[in-house]
Amino acid sequence: MTSYLREHWQYLNRAGGYPGVDGLRAAAMLAVVFFHFGLFQIGWMGVDLFFVISGFLIGGMIIDGLQAGRFRSLVFYRNRALRILPVYYFFILLSVLVKALLLSTAAFDLGSATKSIASALFFYQTTGPYFFGLDIDSHYVPGGSWSLVIEEYFYLLFPWLALALYSSQPKRRDTLLIVLCGLVLLGPVVRLYATRQFNPTDFNWYLASSLEFHSHYDELLAGVLAALIVRRFPTRAANRPLLFGMGVAALIGFYAYLAQTPNLAVASLMTRETLIYPTLCAGAFASIMLAVYNLEMRSRIVVIIARLSFPMYLSHIFLLETVTLMETRYHTFGYRLDEPAWQLGKLCIVLVMSYVISLCVEYPFLRLYHRRGSHSVESYPRSSSPVPEASSAILTPARLE
């Protein structure tokens, strides 16, 4: 047991193959947590950064596999399942056991609960045109799982696109890059078509649309583009400040626009802005990624947060939803939930929950993933890549999850 605890702790403290991405992952995770805790108004952009990083890491793994001639789709899907399903299914179980107990008897609907759980198990809860379609009750679905649905679609579709278009032959080597550029630029057009019948002032419809695959696929593909670029055109040190500045300037400009109308600073109140902001975030975050992906990461706390990001993402929303249910039904808390002391307490609870879940649920499957991954796409050497290989790359979470 002691050796397992030590091994897990070493994993939490070990920087990944792309140290700079650990910093972005931790920043994205903290932004989302602070947003939900009411401390960072535009922290919802952290999810958009999640998608770009996922595209960069997973897309890069697939490209390396294709370059080595050893990509196997079944191995890829098995490894993705080992990486995501244990923690995700654990939170489905928690949602059923804890939240259902806190609901009043009158509010419990067995049919709705069964349908909701089944939809969550197969990542179907946000595939329709509504926030939660098919009479799904969000009480039985892990909060924040809509982003997992989007990523699962990416895992399902992108490998086949890459298999069809990627080639190491000089005459065809840029085909995938060109197609991805076109698909990213088409993002606003795709969303315009998907929302063509929406009432221009009905933000509920636009919020529902923004939680579906068509509203964020370009961010994932922008991450893949960044992965292709660093393999073809390594970022020169002299260009990093320019790339970083361009990305930050784009984000600041977007926020300045949002700040002109106070309600637009809340993502859930946007309407037509949902058509363009994912593409803008895709470009901005991809530019920042190209600037920092291979920078050294010396902060231990940043690396730990990066490693705990997946359980932390689901834990903090689960905690907030559970506390809200308790307050609604039992009036448990006699003080304001947004007081600084309570905010700090919630953050501590989330960190402890994330550590325990990583230790007991996530890491056992990561060890299996590692043992069975000796011939998997994640373990391909990146000798042809400008990024030096790290011994811990096999255990680097592919998602900001």
Question: Total helix count?
Answer: 15
Quick check: average pLDDT? 82
Alpha carbon gap, first and last residue = 26 Å
Query: How would you characterize the largest beta sheet?
Result: none
Structural class: mainly alpha
Q: Which ranges are low-confidence, i.e. pLDDT below 50, for 5 or more consecutive residues?
A: 129-133, 374-401
Radius of gyration using CA atoms only = 21 Å
The global form is globular
- Total number of beta strands: 0
The quaternary state of the protein chains shown equals single chain
Question: How many domains, as an integer?
Answer: 1
Share of helix, binned: 55-70%
Percentage of residues in DSSP E strands: under 5%
The secondary-structure element order is HHHHHHHHHHHHHHH
What do you see in this structure?
With 401 residues, the protein is an all-alpha fold. The protein has one domain (2-395). It contains 15 helices and no strands. It has helices at residues 2-12, 19-36, 45-68, 73-102, 110-121, 146-165, 175-185, 187-194, 203-210, 217-232, 240-260, 273-292, 300-307, 309-330, 340-372. The radius of gyration is 21 Å and the shape is globular. The two termini are 26 Å apart.
